[in-house]
Amino acid sequence: SKRNAEARICAALRIEFAVTTMKLRTIFIAVCLLACAAFSLQAAPKTSAPLPFDNIAGSAGVIRITPVFHGTVQIEYRGKVVIVDPVSAGSYNKKADLILITHAHPDHFDKDAIMSLCKVTTQILVPDGIDNRNVDGGLSGGVTKLYGDTKSMVLNRIPIREVPMYNLVRGPNAGQKFHSKGEGNGYILTIGGKRIYIAGDTEVTPEMKRLKNIDMAFLPMNLPFTMTPQEAASAAKAFRPRIVYPYHYRYPFDKANTNPQQFAVALKGTGIQVRLRNWYPADAVQRMIQQKS
Predict the structure, then answer these.
(1) pLDDT, tens digit, for every residue of 265-282?
(2) Nearest to residue 272, comparing CAs of 230, 228, 227, 238?
(3) Which residues pair with 65 in a beta bridge?
(4) 3-class SS shares of the chain: helix, strand, coil, % to 5
(5) How many Cα atoms occupy the beta-carbon half-sphere of 74 within 13 Å?
(6) How far is 51 from 33, CA to CA, in rounded Å?
(7) Partner residues linked to 239 by β-bridges
(8) CB–CB of 208/163 below 8 Å?
């Protein structure tokens, strides 16, 4: 009948309307999800690819060692982040709880890098060779500034001992040294039950050779500023760290060499574990060259 036909048409229209509404709703949701995803990608901070790191077992967790660039190393343990000699050329993914500066040369002391990595609670240790005003001029008032006028201390619950770093024979001219005694410090940090020695820019000093019970060491080897790979190996044989990282081994920064490999050969058969890592990522090298030009 006519009434039944009209009813069938109305039912069909209602079904079509419902299907169309569902399709439009699906399309709308899909568009919203795509827009949100695009916004998230646009709003997300740009970060570099994660840097390679080493995990080393500590007494109550993992100690993470990240080679950043040249003489810059990041050490993490149980949520604490320690950065030694940060420079702007490096890539960082975390703020520092503790920053250690070995000396005033620009490839180790970079006020812009320090300020960018500081939190309100960050503590900083610098040697006597860095004028206090150089630090005060580059850091926010909320940062605790501590100066290297004692031999040992505890910062951020990390015991730290200072070790003199200096040249014995090498310098720019007769009677001069690239690094004079008293101007800079190496450091021994006790983290996760491990004693970690960061040498800074130094030759093989009597103080270095007398070190005991070092679990990890970072030793420099670039002429004319520090020492040869063979000299660094002789130092490692003297104080016998369990693990040693050759670092600070290039100058110019974009000129590759075999210093780490020579160092590893010189320590072959000693039982000292030599870890060769890339301390000169291409992007960091390029940024450093641009900054220097």
Answers:
(1) 999 999 999 999 999 999
(2) 238
(3) 54, 75
(4) 30, 25, 45
(5) 24
(6) 31
(7) none
(8) yes
The single-letter DSSP state of residue 228 is -
Using alpha carbons, select from 276, 219, 253 the residue that is nearest to residue 89: 253
pLDDT of residue 145 exceeding 50, the answer is: no
Residue 31's contacts (CB-CB under 8 Å, 6 or more residues apart) are: none
Q: What is the pTM of this model?
A: 0.80
How far from each other are the two terminal CA atoms of the chain, in whole angstroms?
Answer: 92
The Cα–Cα gap between 128 and 141 comes to: 20
Q: Is 232 left (phi over 0), alpha (psi -120 to 50) or beta?
A: alpha
| CB-based contact 257:250 (threshold 8 Å) | yes
Residue 191 has which token pair? 């983290």
24-79 tens-digit pLDDT = 444 433 333 333 333 333 333 334 455 689 999 999 999 999 999 999 999 999 99
Helix and strand numbers (H, E) in the chain are: 7, 14
Contact 159, 142 (CB under 8 A): no
What whole-number distance in Å separates Cα of residue 99 and Cα of residue 83?
5
Query: Residue 173 above 70 pLDDT?
Result: yes
Q: What does each C-alpha distance from 145 to 49, 105, 111, 158 come to in angstroms?
A: 32, 19, 13, 16
Q: φ, ψ for residue 191 (rounded to 5)?
A: -130, 125
